[in-house]
Specification:
Length: 357
């Protein structure tokens, strides 16, 4: 794998195999074009860089997890190691707050609950599943998750608590395009699956036998009930922290003159998920006010960067163009979170203002 180049491309879910040959599923052409690894590639070239194992080996190219699994299975089988592919999902739909709360309430083993909850939360509002391989070694099938042989189904960085839902030899028999691929590409929703994912958990429970002696030390899921905004600045202005300058993923906000805010509260030693949890629950609406001028409406986005050693807890705020046009240059606006949801609130440092330059 070290000799193969990864690039982001996600077309495996848009391809079906009539008569054993790959073709883009009718109706998913636009999604296929958008998610190609290189806009200059033809359809066949895309297949050869992401979908077809021997060609990926020749091109030294692979994509995300499904592509990686195809590539890996091709090479391992060539070496004589029986290999199959599987699809796994989190134990709950992480894009649904009720599902995550069900996990928090229903699971009694503290450390398992914490890992499962944070793993589900990490997926955010996105479509979340994982494809990897199983290999037959030591007279049994063992999970091979990327380069981890015997991977645990409980892993904070891999869905939290994984549930194995599908086994197949290769993509031609998986049926991904006709089912999950169509849903993902077209943004389909329905009564049973109203959120991003085509699965829902109905009940979560774990049981300890009467005479079980299983260690269960406390492992609290800490959460912020409020976050205080202590700085506000236009990204790219002189108020931008030096650690942010030059980061390519934030260039889009520089180009649009995006507004950034800094959060004060932070649990040391934990990662960005502590902010994601709060921001998923708190009201994102913010109003900017200046005496004698029209109110300006904005919204906290789920785009943020945290870096504990650099004191970075920077969050993007969207001010729509029609609202931004109301903001008078040179006038200092105070910041007023709407806080329309109980229990999780934004606070603002006294006398904090933002001025459009």
């Amino acid at each position: 794998m070290s000799s193969s180049k990864y690039r982001y491309q996600f077309c495996t879910y848009y391809v079906h195999f009539p008569k054993g040959k790959p073709e883009v599923l009718p109706g998913l052409e636009k999604a296929f074009e958008k998610d190609r690894g290189d806009a200059r590639w033809s359809v066949q070239e895309q297949f050869e860089h992401e979908l077809l194992g021997r060609e990926m080996f020749r091109n030294k190219s692979h994509g995300t997890c499904t592509s990686f699994a195809v590539y890996q299975a091709t090479v391992l089988r060539a070496l004589g190691i029986p290999t199959r592919m599987i699809v796994a999902i989190p134990v709950v739909d992480g894009s649904d707050q009720e599902q995550r709360d069900m996990l928090k309430k229903g699971m009694k083993h503290h450390s398992v609950r914490k890992v499962a909850y944070e793993g589900a939360l990490a997926g955010g509002n996105s479509f979340t599943a994982h494809t990897f391989t199983e290999v037959f070694v030591g007279k049994r099938w063992r999970r091979l998750n990327y380069t981890t042989l015997g991977a645990n189904i409980l892993d904070r960085h891999s869905l939290g608590l994984m549930v194995h839902v599908h086994t197949f030899r290769d993509l031609s028999e998986a049926g991904l395009a006709q089912t999950w691929g169509r849903r993902y590409a077209l943004g389909q929703r329905d009564k049973n699956f109203p959120h991003s994912n085509p699965y829902r958990c109905l009940e979560v429970a774990d049981h300890f036998g009467k005479h079980a002696r299983i260690p269960n030390p406390p492992a609290p899921i800490e959460e912020h009930k409020h976050v205080t905004i202590t700085r506000a600045y236009w990204l790219g202005s002189k108020g931008t922290p030096d650690a942010l300058k030059g980061l390519p993923e934030w260039q889009q906000y520089v180009n649009s003159g995006g507004l950034m805010i800094h959060g004060e509260e932070w649990f040391p030693g934990r990662d960005h998920l502590q902010y994601k949890e709060f921001m998923r629950r708190a009201d994102p609406a913010i109003v900017f006010r200046a005496k004698g001028h029209k109110d300006v409406k904005g919204f906290v986005q789920m785009s943020f960067i945290t870096w504990e050693s650099k004191d970075l807890r920077e969050i993007a705020v969207l001010i729509p163009p029609e609202e931004r046009a109301k903001m008078v240059r040179g006038v200092a606006y105070t910041i007023h979170p709407v806080n329309g949801k109980p229990g999780y609130t934004w606070k603002v440092k006294d006398s904090l203002t933002i001025t459009r330059e």
